[in-house]
Amino acid sequence: MRRLLFYLLAVCSLTSAAQNTEKEVTLDEVTVKGAHTIQKVDGQWIYPTKQQIENSTNGYSLLAKLTLPHIRVDEAVNSITALTNLGTVQVRINDIIATREDLQTLDMQGIDHIEFIDNPGVRYGEGVAYIINIEVKKPASGYVVGTQLTNTLTTVNGNESLFGKFNYGRSEFALSYDLNYHKFKGVEYDERAIYELESGDIASSHRYSLNKQSKNLSHNAQLTYSLSDSNYVFQAKLSGSSDMQPQRREAAMALDGVAYDDFSSSSSSSPSLDLYFHQDFHRHQSLTANVVGTYIKTTGNTENNEGANCRYHTDGKTYSLWSEAIYENRLKPFTISAGAQYGQRYSHNVYQGDVDATNDMHTSSLYLFSQLKGRLGKLSFMGGLGASRRYYRQGNATQDYWFFRPKFTVSYPLTSRLKVKYDFEISQHTSQIALVSNVSIKQNAMETILGNPDIHPNRVISHQLKLSYSTPRFTSELQGYYRLNPHCNMEKYIRQDGHFYQTQTNADNECNFFYVESYNQWDIIPEKLTATVYGGIYRFFNFGEDYTHTYTSFNGGCSLQAYLGRWTLGAYADNGWNFMEGEHRGHQAPAWYITCNYRMSDAFSISLYAQYPFSQHPLTNKTEVVSRYVQKEISQHHRDYGNMLTLKLSYRLDHGRKYRDIQRTMNHSDKETGILSK
């Protein structure tokens, strides 16, 4: 009996101990923290922290906190700028090009990760240097509505937006409206020029503004419907925009003390329809198709009475159709993708007045590509080939040509934290449509811009070598880049009868440059304080038909982000982008600003942006012309940009939001009108 009692007591004791032990190891929530950045063969994946997402009011706000290399994000005016001339920066949501309205209405709680691709493959077409792809989960139910009211306290400048997204079953309806306006006064323009005439005499001029201002008013609206299931997505987007620039660059100018008028105004409207379809099948294969139709109507008036009066009116219409189809097969250990892009554009631009011309341009493009991406042991690789056909017709001028675009990238980890990557590419550069028109536009009493229908695209050869080192708290990259542009489109000044014509030619031109740059990001206090510093030396070589120009510059910047509970503080500064191309030495304006955000609740936040503090008239643009016949220095300052204070109020209300898949949105509407302007 005693043994039985002892046995029962022992069992109870062991059971109680087991229960106590179980209570000690049971957790309400388990959080596994890893590296926020994962290096990929074509870039990196970034997983934003909880603090970054909660304290970001929209997509621009989040991207600004990430401080991506070579990218400047101004969340006060909702702009993203590539600080190089390697190509454009393209922002996508779930791999489909996103509009400004898409980023402003981005569902922050659904964000999974961000892919920053600084080495895009042939899949992304031509002329793209950086891809920012935001992967967002698919909302399965509920709704979200909100507004963002952004107004500058020190001048007339604002952006007001309203949006709503509603989910019902497999369908989602989204609507957004955006109003932008500004009226900047105190625009200071200064131009000093020296001209060498055929006789050898020197003519000089000093042009400067007396009362210059900039005005703009634009409306943008989007209506989107999407139907999705676990393996397919269909979306239709109808968007429209209206842009008015009344008396744009209105100015009372002076030339060597003699006043004259120089102003222009313009307006444009552009509806666009975008249809998108994505289908997954056989678990690892997919097919994507996208068709976009765009119409652009543009009108403008320009007047310049320096020396002799020149007044003309422009009327332009552009019709374009763009389509894309992509097949992808995700095998192991590699992925195969192939596809085609086709575009057709017709522009009809009429110039009336002192410039009397009708310009009809027909262009079409076909781009085919195939790409292989995968791993062989520790070696990551990406290789592809693109082939493009461009057709162009304007009057009696016709061009029809093919270009091939081979590209490959290899990446290898030297250690667990150190990785080396090499990239090689041959691509092409195509001039803007306006530059290949047969229209000439007077700039002033001494200069005229002259279009050249005979210029053709040129090859671009690039090499890139990158060494990256990363730990959970520190990331560092050392990068070398070299680009060659043989027989490229470069400017040329022609003098005739005391007048100077600026045009473009291919001839035997060559425009090369290289740079060495370092990028470093350090989480000083994890998830509390982050610092970023980057900078590099750039060297440019320009060999024209009858000139040689070289230039060396330093380009760099730094930022600091602090997360203090509901408060987020940030500071950013860079020296712009200093470069030389042809006979122009360009100085993109430096930028510096301070940001402060306070999240009052999950629905409401308030932000304050101080741009160009401690500066009364910050520089916004500077250009130098170093031609044999024309030497010129142009600078522009904005009084209203100095000590600019901007307030943003953000409100979002959501209910019943649940997520499942990846949401896809799209936009590929045309923006190029082909109008040559001063």
Unreliable spans are 1-35, 661-667
Describe the global form. Answer: globular
Main sheet characteristics: 33 strands, mixed
Q: Number of helical runs? A: 4
- Overall mean confidence score, pLDDT: 84
Number of strands: 39
Radius of gyration: 28 Å
Describe this entry's structure for a reader.
The protein is mainly beta. The protein is 6% helix and 67% strand. The strands form three sheets. The chain has a 33-stranded mixed β-sheet that branches. Strand 35 (591-599) and strand 36 form a beta hairpin.
Q: In brief, what are we looking at here?
A:
This protein has four helices and 39 strands. The strands form three sheets. It has a 33-stranded mixed sheet that branches. Strands 23-24-28-27 form a four-stranded mixed sheet, with no helix packed on it.
Key terms for this structure?
678 residues, mainly beta, 33-stranded mixed sheet, four-stranded mixed sheet, 4 helices, 6% helix, globular, disordered N terminus
Summarize the topology.
Elements: H1 2-25, E1 37-40, E2 43-46, H2 50-54, H3 59-66, E3 71-74, E4 79-82, E5 88-93, E6 96-97, H4 100-104, E7 111-117, E8 128-152, E9 156-168, E10 171-196, E11 202-209, E12 212-228, E13 232-248, E14 252-255, E15 258-281, E16 285-304, E17 310-330, E18 334-353, E19 357-376, E20 379-394, E21 397-413, E22 418-429, E23 440-442, E24 447-450, E25 458-470, E26 474-484, E27 490-496, E28 499-505, E29 510-525, E30 529-543, E31 548-564, E32 567-574, E33 577-581, E34 584-588, E35 591-599, E36 604-611, E37 619-626, E38 630-638, E39 644-662
Parallel strand pairs: 5-8, 24-28
Antiparallel strand pairs: 1-2, 2-7, 3-4, 5-6, 7-8, 8-9, 8-39, 9-10, 10-11, 10-12, 10-38, 11-14, 12-13, 13-15, 14-15, 15-16, 16-17, 17-18, 18-19, 19-20, 20-21, 21-22, 22-25, 23-24, 25-26, 26-29, 27-28, 29-30, 30-31, 31-32, 32-35, 33-34, 34-37, 35-36, 36-39, 37-38
